[in-house]
């Protein structure tokens, strides 16, 4: 029996990743090795018991190594013949996009992917004089956000793409929280601070509020590592 074993996180789909998450939470521990091989190697569960013991252990080790790989943030990927691109300008994210991303990134990866990655509708080369400022030599535009209808298509996207994007947003949020105290202290006048304190909205309270707003973003790192 020929078995295709994923050796890299990019060879594991989000759909497989979610199946494994569900299985690991709802199955007995002794049954998990068989489920892991069945899910990630795309074979029937009853076929797993026919695998020689030595090969079985090697497959488990290989899949485990793939799942432990650190994901990287990728700007583009191709799925089912369609090239998808990450939000080209994160500074210009629309309010609706942000709300949906914040809502889904912890709990519904497929819908979150519909916000972060969309089909590329145009590409152009970066002028040589600007290439040192760009991550890639090719820039692109993506389709407008139309909501998350049809999100099931993202089952086939690589799990590494989703996890890498989550790490990107986590780091972005952390950098923002590091910069905010000094920035607020610098741009807020003494008079404004006095007014804020009188109304019970000091810098410390404001920072706590901002931390609560970004708490969902910070939490998803726990989701990633506890469910890998």
Plain-language structure description:
The chain has 228 residues and is of the alpha+beta class. It has 3 domains: 9-67, no CATH class; 76-156, no CATH class; 160-226. It has 10 helices and 4 strands. The chain has helices spanning 14-26, 32-41, 45-48, 53-67, 95-104, 109-116, 159-187, 190-198, 203-213, 215-226, and strands at 76-79, 82-86, 117-125, 138-142. Strands 1-2-3-4 form a 4-stranded antiparallel beta sheet. α1 packs antiparallel against α2, α2 packs across α4 and α7 (159-187) packs antiparallel against α10. The radius of gyration is 22 Å and the shape is elongated. Residues 195-228 have low confidence and may be disordered.
**Nearest-integer average pLDDT:** 80
| Shape call | elongated
- Spatial strand sequence of the major β-sheet: 1-2-3-4
H/E topology pattern: HHHHEEHHEEHHHH
Q: Kindly provide the radius of gyration, computed on alpha-carbon positions and rounded to a whole number of angstroms.
A: 22 Å
Task: Please bin the fraction of helical residues.
Answer: 40-55%
What keyword list fits this structure?
228 residues; alpha+beta; 3 domains; 10 helices; 4 strands; disordered C terminus
Q: Summed up, what is this model?
A:
This protein is an alpha+beta fold. The chain has ten helices and four strands.
Secondary structure blueprint with pairings:
Layout: H1 14-26, H2 32-41, H3 45-48, H4 53-67, E1 76-79, E2 82-86, H5 95-104, H6 109-116, E3 117-125, E4 138-142, H7 159-187, H8 190-198, H9 203-213, H10 215-226
Antiparallel strand pairs: 1-2, 2-3, 3-4
Helix pairs in contact: 1-2, 2-4, 5-6, 7-9, 7-10
């Amino acid at each position: 029996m020929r078995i295709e074993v994923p050796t890299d996180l990019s060879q594991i789909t989000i759909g497989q990743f979610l199946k494994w998450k569900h299985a690991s939470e709802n199955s007995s521990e002794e049954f998990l090795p068989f489920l892991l091989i069945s899910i990630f190697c795309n074979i029937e569960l009853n076929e797993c018991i026919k695998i020689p013991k030595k090969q079985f252990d090697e497959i488990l080790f290989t899949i485990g190594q793939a799942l432990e790989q650190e994901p990287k943030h990728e700007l583009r990927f191709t799925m089912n013949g369609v090239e998808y691109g990450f939000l080209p300008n994160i500074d210009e994210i629309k309010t609706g996009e942000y709300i949906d991303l914040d809502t889904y990134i912890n709990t519904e990866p497929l819908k979150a992917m519909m916000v972060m990655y969309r089909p590329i509708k145009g590409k152009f080369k970066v002028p040589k004089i600007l290439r040192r400022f760009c991550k890639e030599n090719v820039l692109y535009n993506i389709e407008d956000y139309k909501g998350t209808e049809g999100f099931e298509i993202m089952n086939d996207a690589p799990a590494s793409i989703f996890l890498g994007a989550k790490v990107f947003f986590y780091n972005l949020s952390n950098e923002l929280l590091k910069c905010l105290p000094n920035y607020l202290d610098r741009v807020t006048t003494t008079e404004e601070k006095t007014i804020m304190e009188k109304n019970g909205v000091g810098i410390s309270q404001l920072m706590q509020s901002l931390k609560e707003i970004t708490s969902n973003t910070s939490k998803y790192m726990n989701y990633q590592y506890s469910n890998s």
